[in-house]
Amino acid sequence: MSVNDVYARRPFKLVALLCVFLALALDAAALLSPAWVTAEHFSLSLWESCSQSQAAWSCFSTLSSDWQIATLVLLVAGAAATLLAFLVALISLCRGTHRRHYRTVAALLFTAVVLQSCALVLYPIKFIDGTVLQTYHEFNWGYGLGWGATIFMLGGGILFCLRTDDYEDGMY
């Protein structure tokens, strides 16, 4: 490398790894969120449904409903694929074998996007189909975090698909 050489440093893969990490964090927060659907005197998460009668709240498990179990399985499978993609990307970037595993990481992320999208479309359809609330209800921040995680997974998958070999070699 001479003094007159100029290298463009575009850390697409590091940004992609950051996207995958954010997707993983948002996914964990969405899975643990107590508020997916809320209404006056009603709250529904992936794990339990709570309603207020008189002055006390009563909660019961939602794992008796088939569609809620299917939603939970799809979300957990998407989170597992995202975790595996994050670990493969992190290890390959740290070891210097970065080019070899980009397609595998991207495929895992696109699989997670499909799984998460199916779960996030299934949830409101089956909720509205099966539940008749007499009051106004809204899909709350837990549901929104699930969509945020899906968007970051998609962004990370796209960034891992980019062919940046020509101008990223100087960086690693």
Concise synopsis of the structure shown:
The chain is of the alpha+beta class.
Which descriptors would you attach to this protein?
172 residues; alpha+beta; five-stranded antiparallel β-sheet; 5 helices; 5 strands; 61% helix; elongated; disordered C terminus
SSE topology sketch:
Layout: H1 12-32, E1 37-39, E2 42-44, E3 48-53, E4 56-61, H2 66-95, H3 102-130, E5 137-139, H4 141-161, H5 165-168
Antiparallel strand pairs: 1-2, 1-5, 2-3, 3-4
Helix pairs in contact: 1-2, 1-4, 2-3, 3-4
Would you write up a description of this structure?
The chain has helices spanning 12-32, 66-95, 102-130, 141-161, 165-168; strands at 37-39, 42-44, 48-53, 56-61, 137-139. It is of the alpha+beta class and 172 residues long. Strands 4-3-2-1-5 form a five-stranded antiparallel β-sheet. α3 packs antiparallel against α4. The two termini are 15 Å apart. The model is unreliable at 168-172 (pLDDT under 50).
Number of helices in the DSSP assignment: 5
Low-confidence stretches: 168-172
Overall spatial form: elongated
Count of DSSP strands: 5
Q: How much helix is in the residues?
A: 55-70%
Largest sheet, in brief, is: 5 strands, antiparallel
Radius of gyration: 21 Å
Encode the helix/strand succession as letters.
HEEEEHHEHH
Percent strand equals 5-15%
Oligomer: single chain
N-end to C-end Cα span: 15 Å
| SSE-based structural type | alpha+beta
Average pLDDT metric: 83
Spatial strand order of the main sheet: 4-3-2-1-5
